[in-house]
Amino acid sequence: MKKEWYSQQRLAAIQKWKDLAYGMFVHFGLYSLCGGVWDGENVKVGYSEQILSHGPVPQDSYEALKHSFSIENFDADAIASLAVAAGMRYIVLTAKHHDGFCLFDTATTDYSTMHSPCRKDIVAEMSRACSTHGLGFGLYYSWIDWHFPYALPISPHNSDAIPLEHMDYTMAQLTELLTGYGEICELWMDMGAPTRDQSRHVADLAHSLQPNIMVNGRVWNDCGDFLTMGDNQFPEHELQMPWQTPATIYHETWGYRSWQERKDAQGKVFQLSSALFSVLDGGGNYLLNIGPTGDGSIVPFEREVLEGIGREVRKRGLSRNPQGTVIAERIEKNETVHELGGATKQYRYTGGDYYSFHPIVTALSWKIELERDAVYEVAYRLSAHLEKEMKLCLDWEHDGGASDDDSDGTFIFTLKRGHQESIIFTNMVMRAGITTLTLHTVGSPIKRPELEGEDIILLLRKQRKE
């Protein structure tokens, strides 16, 4: 049998998340009151939701905005209704952004909406609205915190370490968020420079409290469940793992900006719906942002654009139409030895460094077509001797859905140091039709190490007919 690197629960969670396909990101907080303006001047440096960092803004003056956060026009139901009209299937809300202001009821700080004039638990309201409208609900949470006294101060790069006291605070808030608001489909961490252990602790906490949750790649250190691309970016290579593109309508900001140029809604509809369908066809999910105003209203231009995208979604649907189907390599019935070259490379992106994504090859695959059943010995050949041993897996899978176990399988083996050619497996049963052979490093697709020796060639030597 083919080895499965995920538990059945994880497989189900991944598929459920992939089925969500297209969602709404909502950036909302104290920065929404500013609208990208301070003391009557447009702050043109950086994103508007980071005005405290990029603008000439005294921290005490910014934090005093808490006392003006009345958000009389905020309507979670209206936001959820817009998501449905846009064809979206889930919403991710900024529970806490970099400024540390919490949109939920927390025992950890009074720097929250519950201690502002609105006295609202925004997270709770959005959770209920999503449930009412049949949407999934996810939470954004920033690693960094410009309010918490034991966190590192504001920096221009946002790649700050997480001190011990700050980590305890983070875990306490995440525990509140992951236990008090129903089922959470996605935890969207951001920024910061946690250690590998800190990343793992957050991912483990999320999985323990929400067994069906998907944690994004910006938990860092390859501890996430799906790759988060850079803002508005697409992968350079086809990926064999869950991934997501976070996107903005304007690219210049995520939070509300009062002086943002807003024109050509139909052009935006075409641009963003094209991006959505490209992401879907590439196997990814698309998370498109809106930024409500300081009183909680939906920006009319953003409503118009999302409703336009919704019309395009209703025409096409959210189906995935993969491009670039690989043609199977035919093996003639009288061949006794067949050399498989020209493998399809499979990539993943690693985020081991802060906010960087390096594509690495983790697998090679070949499609072969047989006229009749046969049994093969599988060997490998390299162009040069290996300098160190490497443990690999060979998967084989018959595309015809054969019912017997021997048509699919996994064999784990070691490429020996100093060897250029050796046998991998004998008596491999290959059924008539198309079989996919995949050679990969050990582990789940999102965590596999890099494959050394991309020039490897597989040799199929016929042992007998079935």
TrEMBL record:
**Residue ranges of every copy of the Glycoside hydrolase family 29 N-terminal domain listed in the record:** 2-313
- Which Pfam families does this chain map to? Alpha_L_fucos
Gene3D superfamilies under this entry?
Glycosidases
- GO BP: fucose metabolic process; glycoside catabolic process
For this UniProt entry, the molecular function terms from Gene Ontology, in alphabetical order, are: alpha-L-fucosidase activity
Q: Which chain regions cross the lipid bilayer?
A: none
Q: Say which domain of life the source belongs to.
A: Bacteria
Q: Which SMART domains match?
A: Alpha_L_fucos (SM00812)
Broadest EC class assigned to this enzyme: hydrolase
Q: Which residues form the signal peptide?
A: none
State its Enzyme Commission number(s): 3.2.1.51
Q: Which cellular component appears as one GO term in the record?
A: lysosome
Q: Which InterPro entries match?
A: FUC_metazoa-typ, GH, Glyco_hydro_29, Glyco_hydro_29_N
**Which family does the record assign?**
Belongs to the glycosyl hydrolase 29 family.
**Function as written in the Swiss-Prot or TrEMBL entry:** Alpha-L-fucosidase is responsible for hydrolyzing the alpha-1,6-linked fucose joined to the reducing-end N-acetylglucosamine of the carbohydrate moieties of glycoproteins.
What is the recorded name of this protein?
A: alpha-L-fucosidase
